[in-house]
Specification:
The protein has 119 residues and is mainly α. Helix content is 66%, strand content 0%. It has helices spanning 5-8, 21-30, 37-54, 58-73, 78-87, 89-92, 97-113. Helix 4 packs across helix 5 (78-87) and helix 4 crosses helix 7 (97-113).
């Protein structure tokens, strides 16, 4: 289960992504259908920020990002949730256009892999 200590560990929890136990715990927690979107959105956004700001290797960053969005897509309203995050990327990563562009592309690819049109 998710523990609040996961986020307090800082960048160390990102090493070995996306199979590191703390990251996997976070993804498992995000699939819990008993938690509504109002509880999921802030955690998903903070996780995304930590991935892009703290993960040293590009392949880890991108793998963790795809894993995060694939996890969110498992929720009943996951597609809308991911699309909402995609629309807010400029606010999530202010003054980081490269992160916004690459993250948007990863979201597009992830949504294209899911059933239906990407947007």
């Amino acid at each position: 289960m998710f523990s609040t200590g996961t986020f307090s560990r800082g960048p160390a929890w990102l090493i070995g992504m996306p199979r590191a136990p703390p990251f996997r715990e976070t993804l498992d927690w995000l699939t819990n259908e008993r938690i509504d979107e109002n509880g999921i959105i802030p955690i998903a956004i903070q996780t995304l920020r930590m991935i892009w700001r703290e993960t040293p290797l590009v392949h880890q960053r991108e793998g963790a990002t795809v894993a995060l969005f694939q996890t969110l897509l498992k929720r009943p309203s996951g597609r809308e949730l991911v699309q909402g995050i995609a629309g807010a990327l400029n606010r999530i990563f202010p003054l980081e256009p490269l992160a916004v562009a690459r993250c948007r592309e990863l979201i597009r690819q992830t949504l294209a892999g899911a059933t239906g049109p990407p947007f």
